[in-house]
Amino acid sequence: MANPYQQKVFQRKLIYLGIVVALLAASWVWRHYRVEPAALRLNLLEESRGDTDLLGSAARTALSGLRGFVTCGLWMEAIEQQKKNQWNSLERTVTQLTHLQPHLITPWLFQSWNLAYNVSVESDRVADKYFYITRGVQLLARGERQNRNQPNLRREIGFYIQNKVCQSDETNVMRSLFQLSCIPPAERDPRNFLDEKGNVKLDALKEFCLAHPQLARRLHSPPLPYDLRREYRKFRCATAREVVQFLADNYNVPSLYVDRLEDEQLWRQKAVRSNPLERFPVLPPRYEEYADGTREARRMYNDEDLTEEQFVEKRVPDEVDGFVVAKAWYGYSQECIPPPGQLPGDSEEPKDRNRQRRPKHMSSVVFRTSPARAQAYVAERLQAEGWFDAEPFELTEWFKPSPSALDVPPKIGEREARPWSSDAWRKAGQMWHRFGVDNHLLISDDEFAVKKGHEEDFKKKFRITGPDSPFPDPAALTDEEREELRAVQFLRMYHQYRGITNLNHYLITTRVEEQERTVTARKLMYQAEQLRIVAQDFNQSLEKYEHPDSMLAWRRVLEDNPAFRRDSSIQEWTVDTELMYHRLYRRLNEDKLKPDLALLAGLGQAVAGPPLGADWTLAPLFSRPQLQPEIEIVGPFDVDSEGKPLIFDVARDTVLVRRGLKAAPTPGPGAPTPGPPGAAVTQPPQPKQ
Fold this sequence. Notes:
Blueprint: H1 4-41, H2 46-49, H3 54-63, H4 67-83, H5 87-100, H6 105-119, H7 126-146, H8 151-165, H9 171-181, H10 202-211, H11 213-220, H12 240-249, H13 264-268, E1 287-289, E2 295-297, H14 308-313, H15 322-334, H16 364-367, H17 370-384, E3 393-394, E4 411-412, H18 420-438, H19 445-462, H20 479-501, H21 503-513, H22 516-533, H23 538-545, H24 551-560, H25 562-565, H26 568-589, H27 597-608, H28 610-616, H29 619-622, H30 649-658
Antiparallel strand pairs: 1-2, 3-4
Helix pairs in contact: 3-5, 4-5, 5-6, 6-7, 6-8, 7-8, 8-15, 10-11, 15-17, 17-18, 18-21, 19-20, 22-23, 22-24, 23-26, 26-30, 27-28
């Protein structure tokens, strides 16, 4: 039997054990019924913030207080690996970093940008650049899944795709690789297009081109160069064999679909990858899952935007490009920012801070312009690649006409014939209109007149003469005066944010570009340049330029839309078009320029009236590249039917300097400065004679 001292020790141990058990039970009850519901309500649990990462959670738990030291070491190691061009090791290090810092936004943004921008440009092959761009996008998409309701992460995914795929230096190759990512590998297998002797099976290639007309046209006749003076040719496949070689060289491009080496049966079935984060392009989900286990369809900014579920359910449309995918991500980013406020460009305070956040490093109103701007990029891309209307396109270079029926050039685009350009611009106009209405940047004339009257009364009553004039205390105002003060604030923000978003420019541009005559004029001038640069058929090119629905129709478009023609980009594009026509005419008529002056005079009179015909006849002489420091261009777009200038000197000089036809002027005091793209061009006052 134990002595009394041992009994007391045993009793104390029992008491301590009971206290420990009681405390553990109390803490479990407190955590289960108080802490966890509050954490769930405030989205503090890991599963409520996004997809859980079991491996990352285990690593963070094992490191405990050493996580900061390990993270710093990995950051330094990543920098060294990048300096040494150790790309595979760098990617592994980046993955480890994101495992240790899953809910810190900066590592996701920086490392994904590092892969998509810094690492990709170190590669020589465009396909390798494309690979690292896709890896950066997929990394950022994984970060978005682990950090729900982060508008900046969502927007950057769209921006990477838009900027690196659709607006890069190798944009024609990048866009083609992007479209290959959306085509099942079994369908674009190069072995499908070669016979046993290695010859191209034109019938199989013809069916492929008919199924993917936009890819075929992009490879056959790439968009015209942006730098119109150099007129270099972009990447293209000149023959059918080069098309098959392009498919073979890029067969292993990152894709939506299962690869043959992964599962041959699924490869034959053209199955989409089961893990959405392993697909490229990555798309936003249609259904959202929450921490409480519920799953519901999310509120979509635009019901027409693509989702990841659609890629599984149906075939990817041929017209899907990087801008379309970027637009979907831009729309997805709008869903987690507060709705617009009562004043123009303003935002409401977040009502649900777990699901609503303001964008960082960007004004909310500018952030909201992204979907509409992406749709405008879609329309511009269709124009650049020649998709104006339902007119099909012949692949003359790949399928030469011959007695064989298989060699007849196919007409692609007939199956999906539609008014491509008008539809795209109309949709862009609708999105810009919706943006203006939602953000109070588009109001009726009556409402504007009422607010303008209130503003004038208020300024007159309180002697407000400028933007720096102090406003009276709202508490000391009457109800009527406070209403007038709100009108003053409304109009001030109205004008400010309409200028910041360039809303008026996009509304005018979309309205004019969707018109049938504008589309036809642009199409004929596009075809004229393709004939001049690619086909070298100068006579047919001149016929396209001189068609009544071409340059003459474009002139009428400019005359009928003064605000549209004052746009700087439209002014410069018109000058470029005029210069290209001058160059073409001079090339065809240099030896007989004087006998053909009557023809030019007649065309000049048709567009500019009898007094201007004689001036335009001298245009080919002045369009000749000369060594003189100054050059004067006289053409059909100088003045309108009322004698007012269609093209201002500022825009004309900008183009001439860019093309090396004129020396850059030395800016003097009071000289006009060029505005941003889309800004209106104003003609400086001319001195009186």
